[in-house]
């Protein structure tokens, strides 16, 4: 299989269908964006890839052995968390690639003493620099000021280019700057 993942006419939801049909393909090295109005089911589609939501119709084909990392829209923040930034990277396997300079000042801080935006950037790098070949990012610019959005773009560009990213974002400017392709999704009707 050439692609990392292929969605073929996928309809996903929970007790009832929410989104679709959606077809898309993500290949190694690509950054693909998913766009659509609030509440249409974009997060639900990412959850279908990780098996958390239900696939009603269609098919999701994964490259054999594919590992997926998922940065959720509102990451759970467990407090207190006496874990250092560099320990988070080690736990996720992300210490194998040197963290970018822009994150260096966060590595010796406890996770529960980082700001929401700092924690988010570190968690995104833990996904991008970890073992997964496919990284799912749900609204990665949430909580980020313009300087941090620049850092996020830098992290995306610095990732190992064999990795692919499938991201959901309502920030058209950000999507235009980082994505190779954008897929417009529709609600199930
Ligand atoms: N665990 C769940 N069980 C049942 N319904 C859910 C669940 N999570 C979300 N939904 C419903 O699925 C629909 C789509 O939600 P989802 O969060 O996927 O949309 P979205 O497009 O990502 O929204 P936004 O752009 O606001 O982030 C909503 O009506 C929501 O209430």
From TrEMBL:
It holds the Pfam family ABC_tran. The keyword ATP-binding applies. The keyword ATP-binding applies. One of its GO terms (molecular function) is ATP binding. It comes from the Bacteria. InterPro entries: AAA+_ATPase, ABC_transporter-like_ATP-bd, Metal_Ion_Import_ABC, P-loop_NTPase. Residues 4-187 form the ABC transporter domain. Keywords: ATP-binding, Nucleotide-binding, Transport. Belongs to the ABC transporter superfamily. This is ATP-binding cassette domain-containing protein.
